[in-house]
UniProtKB/TrEMBL annotation:
Classification via InterPro entries: DUF2844
Signal peptide (from-to): 1-31
Top-level taxon in the UniProt lineage: Bacteria
Source organism: Paraburkholderia ferrariae
Protein's name in the database: DUF2844 domain-containing protein
Record key words, sorted: Signal
Length: 157
């Protein structure tokens, strides 16, 4: 039987809780990464990258502002950012890339390099950054291979 310190046990519990909260939060995504974008009623839009993409902003049922980044050429979602009092359902935002994220997060946790209040998970196809604490969450998720020409990771705010 493997034993672990209280610190390791606390980190494991926090990690399990975070994955549970991220995977099962309310307010489903309008479209997942890689899917054709849908624009919710009342959503604000603006152009980025010299017209290479657009940002569709809306507030979910929990009061969190979500920005969907949509490529102009294909009309697909290549990134999400969020900020607000509750985590969005990250698994729903990631869609078919959620399994990649979960396996990369588990590998990161196994090395002990995961953080309590912030994490960056580099999957094979998706990158997810999350941070915050109760009632103040921020994050972003993107598909590096799908970033349109003229749009950089720094534009995802």
């Amino acid at each position: 039987m493997k034993t672990c310190s209280l610190t390791q046990a606390g980190r494991a519990a926090a990690f399990a809780c975070a994955l549970n909260c991220l995977g099962f939060a309310a307010a489903p995504a309008r479209a997942a990464l890689g899917d054709t974008a849908t624009v919710p009623a009342g959503a604000a839009q603006r152009s980025i990258g010299g017209g290479a993409g657009r940002v569709v902003s809306y507030v979910d049922d929990n009061g969190t502002t979500i920005n969907a980044y949509v490529g102009s050429a294909a009309g697909t979602v290549f990134a999400y950012t969020w900020q607000g009092p509750a985590q969005p359902n990250v698994g729903a935002l990631l869609g078919r890339y959620a399994a990649d994220w979960r396996s990369a997060a588990a590998a990161l946790h196994a090395t002990g390099r995961n953080g309590l209040h912030a994490a960056r998970v580099d999957g094979a196809q998706v990158v997810v950054e999350t941070a915050g604490h109760m009632r103040a969450y921020v994050g972003r998720a993107w598909l590096p291979a799908a970033l349109p020409a003229g749009v950089s990771v720094g534009d995802l705010q």
